[in-house]
Structure formats: structure tokens, C-alpha cells
Specification:
The protein has 7 helices and no strands. With 276 residues, it is an all-alpha fold. Helix 1 crosses helix 3, helix 4 packs across helix 7 and helix 6 runs antiparallel to helix 7. The chain is globular, with a radius of gyration of 19 Å.
Length: 276
Amino acid sequence: MQSSNPVLNRSSAFAPGQGQAYPGAAPYGQPGAYGYGGAGMPPNQYQGAPAASRPMTMDDVIVKTAMTLGVVTLFGALAWWFVPARLVTPLFLAGALAAFAIAMVLSFSRKINPALVMVYAAAEGIFLGIGSKFIAAWTGAGTGIVVQAVLATLVTTGLTLATYKYFQIKVTPRFTKMVMLATMGFAGVIVINLIASLFGFNSGIGGFGPMGLLFAAIGAGLAVFNLILDFDMIEQGVRHGAPQSEAWRAAFGLTVTLVWLYWNILRILAILRGGD
């Protein structure tokens, strides 16, 4: 599986001719190997998997993604309603940093940890809940702007999936490399800007001015491209018999991308509307 999104690359993914498709799988190009090109890929079979395991299905991905997003929503709602004013800033930063750190651990883990995925979702929910409440108050739109951002995220995701399937978009290694390099560069700029802001430097990248609008638009665009990588990763995993546990990796990847897309859309809506 060639991997995806803001979390850079999965350690269980590989480029054609390198490494293994899944932990325990036969090397690429040998009988039973799984990777792009389909060389020696028997359908619905996972080389080296325990006898009790079964291949991942699309239903597995849907259910686990729903569970992960459910945790994000639950903790977001709790943070929105119950975090006292004096704890808003520290919990907002703690949620953002914890989500980022856990995402990095999960991204480079060969074996996905479902419990850690849920902890990531909880931290992301705290970050989004506090951040969304701040933006809603800043614009004076209340929950309306959050509902708009959620609907826009769902519509964008649906249109991206329809485009991917209808036009049969082929995710080539070059396309993947370009998207991932752009994502890494964008993430690097955001992290550097965050660190610089702690020392009083304000570039406007994370703000609500023209520079903030530009970077929010770039972030939303990159999220759409990463959705395409996620859809391809899931499709390839189901097609080539990835183990059931990899559904958690797919759910994690989709959650990261959808959260990123929602946050940038929310910022775009807030900047266009302006603060009261």
C-alpha cells in the first residue's frame, strides 16, 4: 500500500520493489507479494498472516472510521461545553501537540494500535472543540459556522470520492511523491510558524488575514489530494488482501485528512465572514 496524507508515510507502506506491503507479507515480486502492479497477487490472500485472521473489507474501514470520528466528535463536544475559560489556551495547545505527537508515532509504526488511534482522536477532538468554539465566537456566527464547515467537509469528501471513482484516477508513484513532498513542506512551515509565534513572531499564516486565507486554501487543497491517496490506499488494501487490522490504519489516515480538511474550511469561512 502506498500511503498518504499529512502524517507523511506509513511504515507498512512501500514503493514498488522495496520492502513489504504489510508486516509479514512476502517481499515484493515474489509469490504471494502485495504491492502495485499486482505481480504474484492471489486475490484475498495475506501471506504469513495468522490462520485466524481475515482480509480487510470496505465495511471494516467504514465502521472503524465511524468509531474514530465519533470519538473526535464526542471529545470536541465535551471541550466546547465544559472546558473552563482559564484552561482554554493550555488545553488547546496540549490537544494540538498531543495529536501531532501521537500521529507521528502511529504513522511510523509497523503495527497499528487501535487504542492509540482512539487517544489520538480524543486529543484531536479537544483541539477542534476549543478551536471551533473560539472561531464561532470570533465571527459571532455561533454554531452555524461549524455546521457549515462540517457540511462543506462532507460535500468536498463526497465529490472527491466521486471524482476518484468516476474518472478512475490513477495514483502513480510520481503523483504520490509530489503530494507528500508538498504536504511535508506545508506541515513544516506550519510547525515553524507555531514555534515562532511562541516567541512573539507573527507571520499571519495562522491568523485571519490575507496570509491566513492563502494558507488555509492551500491546506484545504492539499487535504483533497491526500484524500485521493487515502482512497487509493484503502482500495489497494482491500483488493490485495490486507489484514483486517489494517482497517485501523485506513481509519486513522482518513481521520487525519478529514480533520485537516474541516479545520481549513472552517478557517476559510471565518476569514471570509470576518469577526464581529
